[in-house]
């Protein structure tokens, strides 16, 4: 490994180490943190595939769809579901063949049991023996070898990082990086093993490491912002008189946003709207949609 790559790897390692410390604090608002990162990753992914939906439109696509109505979220909404899956599923379930098949469908790929099985095998090899740089670059090459694009490579790299560090849940990091040091067009190869490209394409390896460092630092910045907002919410929580206020507070801490009409602990729509109005008045939450109806609230 060249000196240049070693320097970038050290920088990325330091950033990941700082992020690891933040993740291990297991803050009450960690769910909202992960889901906010997932939304950012989905917005960048949507733009990369030529879609026009921004974060607000993606949030609407998922939150304003009837629960369980998988197909009605549309192609862009499915991208958000893919990144939300990364943030919400236990880390040890992310790279099972069943979960890989589901997430690839959300990314828009047709069923291919053989490709999923081979991809799972490649990822197990990388998880078992590769170092930090080889694992990162090898993950993207594994995705491309089976015909999947860089968004899938980013998703898989985030999942492998979580497993390597023993995180209970993965942090959506690389999906929000517009420049990943990889080709935009996936390639198929008949090679039987996963190469790492460290020597054959050192600039690509450096680009991926730099992207991972940027993503980790951006996640840390977001954690500081959400910590301030969560502290404010928790400070005003004792003033709330609604019977299900505690359940609403926990929901706000665990997710990106809540629709004002959501069914929480049996609260009526009217009661929930009154509670959110009170929380906005106290400066504890924000209304995120900017609409007079179908309003959405979050930290």
TrEMBL record:
Lineage: Bacteria, Pseudomonadati, Pseudomonadota, Alphaproteobacteria, Hyphomicrobiales
Full protein name: DUF1403 family protein
Organism: Mesorhizobium metallidurans STM 2683
Pfam families cross-referenced by the UniProt entry: DUF1403 (PF07183)
